[in-house]
UniProtKB/TrEMBL annotation:
GO molecular function: acyltransferase activity, transferring groups other than amino-acyl groups
Pfam families according to UniProt: Acetyltransf_1 (PF00583)
Organism this protein belongs to: Mesorhizobium ciceri
Transferase among keywords: yes
Protein name: GNAT family N-acetyltransferase
Keywords: Acyltransferase, Transferase
Matches recorded under SUPFAM superfamilies: Acyl-CoA N-acyltransferases (Nat) (SSF55729)
Record flagged with keyword Kinase: no
Amino acid sequence: MQPTIGPMGEHDVAAVAQLRLSAFFEGTGRTLGEDAAGLRDLIAGDGFEAAFVARIGDTPVGTCLLVRHELEPAHDLTPWLAGLVVDARYRRQGIATALVKATEAHAASRGVEMLYLYTWDARGFYAALGWNIVEICSSDGETMALMSRRPRL
């Protein structure tokens, strides 16, 4: 079954927060409730920031965000493609690429001229989508790449 990509709704929040918690926040002390609250704030915002969800049927299997701020104070740049994650059972099916493209298109529709992201281990994935390494840096002792791209509709 092909996934559909669309804006995150309230009905997606719990499943997406669980997916994000497992991917990004294990061992950090961040709770499911905290992440869900952050997602709710994001989707209730002014429409510039956005959250996209890949669904198989009614089940969220991936997500990607457009946010104004990311990993502060590492860089004073904005906006950011952030939080890309696809459930391990659905990887290597083009879902992450579709989520990135949806996020880029949203950014372009909002007049964004340059979009940024951080990645620790997915440089090749993003480079294949046209992202360029701006800088190799570190955060909390971890080496990461700051990447950029002009978003396209």
